[in-house]
Design brief:
alpha+beta; Rossmann fold; 2 domains; seven-stranded antiparallel beta sheet; six-stranded mixed beta sheet; 18% helix
């Protein structure tokens, strides 16, 4: 997850206390009014006397963050890429199972050393698997067997679904010999949860 803070925000003639969240692709505020600021649309950002001042096409918002304002400003100016957040390193052996966005696949191919589609090969570092219903979770044990002991599985699913949510993915982990370690906003419409083999079990895998 990104940064979070309870703070006061001024936007135009409106002011409110509420919760600010800095995610991978957007800055959010929830209070008496709501703001959603896509980072790619930010025109300027500065930290001034404990305030984070953000300007984008809709206007100017001032977040009373306090001593961490400069930290927030730096992250808004230079957001980490999705691949960085997912832990994809140059030369990684990666597998993609199911349908994922084309722009992600293009970026992935540009960084990873080996990208397999469909069934992952033995020794895969990271597996990205698209899921949409509870029955899809039955794939987890097989994916676990294909990956490196210190590797990971990213389960990716559509946001806003009632029949398949983060709780379903987390609950399926123990039976598959996996634990969840990280959640990301994969895109505007997709969420992702990373699962790994518990450290105590990794030496037993080989």
């Amino acid at each position: 997850m990104g940064l979070e803070a309870t703070c006061a925000v001024r936007f135009g003639k409106r002011a409110s206390d509420g919760k600010a969240q800095l995610e991978a692709t957007e800055l959010l505020f929830r209070g008496d009014f709501r703001l959603r600021i896509p980072l790619k649309e930010v025109v300027s950002v500065e930290a001034k006397k404990g305030n984070l001042v953000v300007v984008w096409p809709r206007g100017r918002a001032t977040f009373a963050i306090g001593k961490d304002a400069e930290k927030w400003a730096l992250k808004v100016r230079t957001p980490r890429s999705l691949l960085d957040k997912l832990g994809v390193k140059a030369g990684s052996r990666v597998a993609v199972v199911g349908s994922l966005p084309g722009d992600f696949l293009k970026e992935l191919a540009g960084r990873a050393g080996d990208v397999a589609r469909g069934k992952p090969r033995k020794g895969t570092d990271l597996v990205f698997v698209a899921m949409g219903e509870p029955g899809d979770l039955a794939q987890l044990p097989g994916l676990r067997e294909a990956m490196e002991p210190a590797g990971g599985i990213w389960v990716v699913w559509p946001k806003g679904q009632k029949l398949f949510r983060e709780d379903h993915v987390r609950a399926a982990g123990p039976a598959a010999g996996l634990v969840d370690v990280k959640v990301v906003s994969f895109s505007d419409s997709l969420s992702g949860l990373k699962m790994v083999i518990p450290v105590a079990q990794r030496k037993k895998k080989r």
